Fold these 3 entries.
Entry 1:
Amino acid sequence: MQIKVVANVLKANRDVASENRALLKELGIKVVNLISSPGAGKTTLLERTIADLKEELPLAVIEGDLMTTRDGERIGRHGVPVVQINTGGGCHLDAAMVKKALEELPLKEIKLLIIENVGNLVCPSSFDLGEDEKVVIISVPEGDDKPAKYPVTFRRTRLCLLNKIDLLPYSNFNVDNFYRDVRALNPEMKVLQVSALTGEGMEAWYNYLRGLVQSN
Ligand code: MG
Ligand code: ZN
């Protein structure tokens, strides 16, 4: 019985996600779903991305958090449309939440929508939101064993950003072990090493976003 309930929830979510996807595709908007643990630097990475790309790529943000509008306020200061979703303790965003948030955004004016999921590496990857791509962010202080511990998220994602590489000299994070574990789970996974703090490697991430927006 338990399993059937979960299956029904996921099926209902998939139906709404398909509606979101159809709407966004019709409007020519590409969507990225950012997934990471709390503290991996999603919001900081987004802030730098927005500051560097907003003139070139009209974009909007949906911010998912358990509580508070702090991250939404940080993004809003950069002058891009943002909707904050508070899940009230829920550990992931679902497609119905995103559908509601879409009603609040100026969809005709944007080409890229970035969704910052709730900080959690377990279940967000199970809930399709209608995105084109899921992107997983791991930061150096979390340790190189994250892929092995959260295999499902890594199997469902095609791009991983390894953030906070400015901290590599001060940590025992083993980049070779990290790549080995990632590739074992997902041979197709692309990894980009970035520092949202110093800007190192960010151009490759921007090129990825540019390519996504131009793709059909
Ligand atoms: Mg955040
Ligand atoms: Zn969850």
Entry 2:
Amino acid sequence: MKIHNFSAGPCVLPATVYQQASEAVLNYQNSGLSILEISHRSSEFIAILEEARQLVLKLLSLDATQYTALFLQGSASMEFLRVPLNLLQTKAAYIDTGTWSSKAIKEAKGLGEVVEVASSRDRNYTYIPSDYELGTHLDYLHFTSNNTIYGTQFVEIPQVEIPLVCDMSSDIFSRKLDFSQFDLIYAGVQKNIGPAGLSLVVVKNEILGKTTRAIPSIMDYQQHINHGNLYHTANVFGVYACLLNLRWLNDLGGIEVIERMNNEKASLLYRTIDGLDYIKGIADQKYRSKMNVTFDFEAAGLKELFDIYCRDANIVNIQGHRSVGGYRASLYNALPIESVEVLVQVLEQVKHKS
Ligand code: PMP
């Protein structure tokens, strides 16, 4: 039975990833060992880790002599704290575009002065603020490129002269950008990278080592770099599953190809939403996310109908976040367009009853 999983994360991954990951659990590459029992210091795992780290830089077109990719235990929320511990000396700027950036701000405030240079709080984060001025003496600017909960996305990346730090949890590897404009990118892996339980950090080496604070070892990016990303026991299976997913993307043709597919999925769904007068999009048109599409019905009665139709069509995890309400269809890289086509049919089916 085909299930159409629109979850905001953890989310659907490619079928080939499930297949290969499950084979590796039983017998990793005919070694007679499960991937779950191999040592993080084994040559097998070091090969997995290094291939995954290199593939990250390759897919982002980043120079491996300037940037380092790290798979770290924790999650994006851990990076909310690791980033200021490593980079905040006196003062940093943050753009507040929703729950996740607010949480990043909260963590940074414990470690130095934080200037909230812009916020879209006034309209429940349905847009991306673009009119702001940065002050002086800032260690970095932090922003969240895609706002998973509200369905908004930065179309233009802030152009600044200070180090640029981005929480790219919900749109990394989904669209072509000049990734060399960022000094640090981080992401919880559970959307476009792999199964939950890790964060990916891509850091420009030269920005580290500038704070004078004593950073606890496990929180210190430089420690992880110095130990070849093996400062402590790695999440062996998690990294392997990330590698399988990164290989899938690479074999597909990389970010350019997936971006075209993502554009097709998002425009099909937004076109449908705009064409049906009993549905409204939640985010401002200009800042609509191509990863998380938020919408609602004009009349409450239609929701009940939609919920029933979704159940019948095996559409799952489409309810909106509790702070926004309505619905949210997450269209991450591995979601096939066929799932969006089924959703579109269901949305149109409601019309006959409206
Ligand atoms: N940032 C963004 C943009 C997110 O979408 C999420 C989770 N959905 C987080 C941060 C927090 O991630 P985690 O649960 O991995 O800490």
Entry 3:
Amino acid sequence: MMVNFINKIDLLIFMSILSKRSGDISSYSVNEENKKLKETLFALKKELNTLKEPPLVVCDLIKIFNDKGIVRLSNGNSFFVNISPGLIDKVKLGDSVLAEQKSLTIIDKIGASKKFEVENFVIMEKPKVRWSSIGGLKSQIKEIYEVVELPMKNPELFEKVGIEPPRGILLYGPSGTGKTILAKAVAASTNSTFIQIVGSELVQKFIGEGAKLVRDIFKLAREKAPSIIFIDEVDSIASERVDIGTSGEREVQRTFMQLLNEIDGFKPLDNVKIIGATNRIDVLDGAILRPGRLDRLIHVPLPDDEGRKEIFKVHTQNMNLESVDFRQVASLTNSFSGAEIKSVCTEAGYFAIREKRVDVGMKDFLLAVDKVRQGDISGGASKASMFG
Ligand code: ATP
């Protein structure tokens, strides 16, 4: 590529000399031609210089001493380095900066702030889910209220009594049973910022950046407090590893270590809570479940008969129903998850629409149950069956 550029530049210089010597070309057109060639030559030289430039190292500025600073690289190593003179007044603590490879002198600052970066990688919202839109799961809701909502709303109560509420909880159970909506509902009832990350994405999409992102996510959560960090598929980061030989595994391990550090680093009454979710509790590394971490385990199972009836009630409250016996429908949906029950309701509505009706009856529900049971509709059936 570079050879190509050099050849192009040589050719342009040669043509420019040729055009200067050619006597039969008017001086006006020669001058014009010359000007154009010079411009092209300049642009090509600039591009060539860019191609020759070595890559710069991205790091975080963690301390500043006048014209020097301490930077931390993504592998965790820190260095005492120079800050180039033009940049001294422009950088501040916590900035992502660019450093030269050899001397690690800071020569530029990344335009977008770190906060902006991390906000691009997580889902951040103020959910509106109400407790009443969750069917069943009464004991889970009560426990989440006690360990998450109460300490966030009444921290002084815990100080007076002299106990520390858990920093985080772990919701575990089959797919589609309501772990995410439980977390969203407690975020809504405490008016917290809900920051959702998916474990598998953290370690697969952002190779080399996982640990840094974990650090930034916790920083963001503190800035936006009260907040709830919801880590879905936490097993992708925190599963027990027998062999950490490969670089991918080491990366996951680094991300996991950072997660543990962050959980250990904040105070239980900091107004930031962590909710982990998994449907593979069997593979979790015990370190994440130790006291002071995600030490409150809450099982979110498939709904029983009563639970299914309540979930049907939630998802049909806006439907135009005609004599549907939900006790019977519930008894026919044994081993369905909440997500599958929601699919049954939607499908029943479709059966009515197909027959040009607006009222949904028992027949529609029975057909819908069959359809979802056969797996034509995705509601997490296959994943749910993993738990029997
Ligand atoms: P996964 O493990 O696959 O992430 P999950 O346990 O987090 O699943 P949710 O995402 O909370 O499951 O549930 C999916 C959808 O199923 C919800 O948006 C909700 O509409 C419905 N649902 C699940 N459980 C319930 C429930 N108990 N009450 C009402 N709706 C429910």
